[in-house]
Amino acid sequence: MTHPALVGLPSLVFVLVPELTRPLPEEGRADCGACPLAALPESDSAHMSDEVRCCSYHPMLPGWLVGRALRAGGVAERVVQRRMADPDGVRGAGIVPSDAHRGRYRAEARGGFGRDVTLRCPYWVGGARACGVWEHRGAVCRTWFCRHEQGVAGHHLWMTVRDTLRVVEGAIARALAHERPPPADDAPGGAKRGWYRWAAARVDGLSPGAVVCPELPSLRAALRDAFDALAAPIPDVVTARVAAVLPLPGDRVRLIGYSGWDPVDAPRSVFVFMSRLDGVTSWADAGGDPAFVAELWRAGLLEAASGAPFAPGMTVTVRRGGQEPETWHLPPDQVPEWS
Ligand code: SF4
Ligand code: SF4
Q1: Nearest Cα residue to atom 4 of ligand 1
Q2: Is the CB–ligand 1 distance for residue 52 below 6 Å?
Q3: From the CA of 146, which ligand is nearest?
Q4: Going by CA atoms, what residue is nearest to atom 2 of ligand 2?
Q5: What is the position in ligand 2's atom list of the atom closest to the CA of 125?
């Protein structure tokens, strides 16, 4: 069965990339109908506003996807027509971010992603899915999940799907443009709409051989590797890999591994365990609880040891709200103190 994230793609995509018919993680931890990040208090570092959520972004849509949205009618057609009312970014071959949105995104994205409503996507309609072009959205939107059931391995798989879809989207667009060149960027909106609709209809009859995509073999191999990595067991010997630490009230700490939106909150004593992971000692001998180790591994807070032992202890980057990051060097078996 087609994964919900891929529903609406033309069958041509699955012919070109048969790996996309393999079961992908459901990603129930990113339940957009009950967004877990919008439910967090504003003070939480992972909070997102329910008024924008992860749609703090203006995607690029090739003409054939724009045409499919127009052809669908209803809300999809309405939001595309609304976007096209502003000619900035409405090109002959598709729709890209306006200069205004691009400028805001560059200036605000670091702190504003998920919070700043001025970054909201023009196709946003609110509600559970929030997306007016859901079945016609592009590679980046289809493959973005704030949290992953299989953590860092799931994230890697979806990013590989994204890269593959992006390349295939472009290759299809080139094949269509070769058959019928799109109108100029300054052509009237009606001419662009006509070409988008033609491209949407033509893509259904396009033969795979017409889509020239030299990158496809290596992308398909990367996809197969990413699927295999999902099933890989946790190695016996691992080392800590903490991207950032946020002190929490009380005796707890937030550890950020592969994503700030999918952290692990733990007692500070986690550092005692982590500092024993010296590249030689197994996590079991270091006193790791199997379920907790599995969660740290999922979140990308542990990685396979390189094989070379190193001095016990660990270095972590600590970020406190609004302050410059601090670097801590922790000797083994020590719970750090902070105020
Ligand atoms: S993917 Fe976006 S909308 Fe869906 S749950 Fe995550 S932050 Fe919320
Ligand atoms: S196209 Fe849809 S999913 Fe993508 S940012 Fe816009 S509203 Fe969100």
Answers
A1: 32
A2: no
A3: 1
A4: 131
A5: 7
Q: Using one digit for the tens of pLDDT, what is the confidence trace for 145-187?
A: 999 999 999 999 999 999 999 999 999 999 999 999 999 999 9
- Tell me the C-alpha to C-alpha distance, in Å, between residue 309 and each of 175, 271, 304, 306, 328: 52, 18, 12, 8, 20
Measured between alpha carbons, how far is 96 from 68 in angstroms, rounded to an integer? 16
Confidence of residue 107 (pLDDT cuts 50, 70, 90): confident
8: left (phi over 0), alpha (psi -120 to 50) or beta: left
C-alpha–C-alpha distance, residues 151 and 298, integer Å = 5
Query: What SS3 string covers 235-294?
Result: CCCEEECCCEEEECCCCEEEEECCCCCCCEEEECCHHHHHHCCCCCCCCCCCCCCHHHHH
125 φ, ψ (degrees, to nearest 5): -125, 0
- Give residue ranges with CB within 6 A of ligand 2: 55, 57, 59, 121, 123-124, 130-131, 133, 137, 141
In angstroms, rounded to a whole number, what is the distance separating the alpha carbons of residues 60 and 299? 30
Place of tokens 């009380």: 250
**Residues 276-305: pLDDT tens digits?**
888 889 999 999 999 999 999 999 999 888
d(CA 264, CA 147): 12
Please tell me the number of the ligand nearest to residue 56's CA: 2
Kind and range of the H or E run holding 326: strand 326-330
Ligand 1 pocket, residue 146 CB under 6 Å: yes
CA of 227 to the centre of ligand 1 (A): 23
Q: pLDDT-derived band of residue 251, with 50, 70 and 90 as boundaries?
A: confident
